[in-house]
From TrEMBL:
Domain HTH lacI-type: 3-51
Domain of life of the source: Bacteria
SUPFAM superfamilies on file: lambda repressor-like DNA-binding domains, Periplasmic binding protein-like I
Molecular-function GO terms, alphabetical: DNA binding
Any single Pfam family the record assigns to this protein: LacI
Record's keyword terms, sorted: DNA-binding, Transcription, Transcription regulation
Name listed for the protein in its UniProt record: LacI family DNA-binding transcriptional regulator
Cross-referenced Gene3D superfamilies: 3.40.50.2300, lambda repressor-like DNA-binding domains
InterPro entries (UniProt xref): HTH_LacI, LacI/GalR-like_sensor, Lambda_DNA-bd_dom_sf, Peripla_BP_I
PANTHER family associated with the record: HTH-TYPE TRANSCRIPTIONAL REGULATOR EBGR, LACI-RELATED TRANSCRIPTIONAL REPRESSOR
Amino acid sequence: MAATLKDIAQKAGVSTATVSRVLNHDTTLSVTKNTRDSIFMIAKELNYKRSSKKTNPSFQKRIALVQWYSEEKEQDDLYYMMIREGIEQRSQTQQFDVLRVFHNNIDNIRNYINGIIAVGKFSDDQVQVLANMTNKLVFIDDDQFYNGYDCVVTDFKMGVKRVINFFMEQNIPDIGLIYGVEETTDGKRIVEDPRKVAFEDTMRQKNIYNPEFVFKGDFSKESGYTQMKHAIEELGSNLPHAFFISSDPMASGALQALQEANIKIPERVSIFSFNNTSLTDFVNPELSSVSVATHSMGGTAVDLLKDKLENTEHTAARIELDTKLVFRKSTNQE
């Protein structure tokens, strides 16, 4: 039996989408030289032959994956990397070619695409630039539904509420928050953290909200470290017994600050993070985190775009995906 892309992917430990792009010499794919070399070597070992069958015409459709971060920033934020992988994997099954564009450098994709999936946060001006290129446009992680666009978002409110309920069940009413604020790459839109909004609403409903326990950062590990240090210094013995932190990188920085202050986790302070990237397993203690369906977000966006391309009666949709709590050693589970 002839070797397939799936055979190569399993042996190389990567996705079939990655194998396809490497074998097609896609220079925009962000993988290491060792990974590329390994894929070519495995393909040779398995005597992989490309199919001589005619390609389905839909395979010629090219979609642009426009990411608001730079390539370097993506390497530091596994959340968006996982969404991208979901897009690439579903695109291969739907026979779409994917062109990646970083940091809104979109001039080179004019007239060469059938549709756009925009990942991240975009200002009105940036949205208009994309819309001027094509009306086949889907957003991920940016709620553009009320502007008439398809979008795939996360149910932040329920995820945060579940975390607060968990702490309350453990008789921990003093819950702190470290959250992030972002702005679009053109600086024209400040993006409020929806987790902060959900946290404040839920805590106020329970009459346990304390603004002194809330600290603002920027989603980086360094910011999480700095804000937790501020909390420790400013609150002293009044430091909350639990913190909800808006991202895994911020939470890893907060853990470091607590450990430097000899504050035991979770005995004195419990930590619950958000996104559940692979980072949660590589810190000590491992982070409890709200799991976001990142791969499904990417795949769902591709399906929406496919329907938009093929269905003349397509109606704009806002798809909100649920989250779930994943418990690890940064919280007590008794």
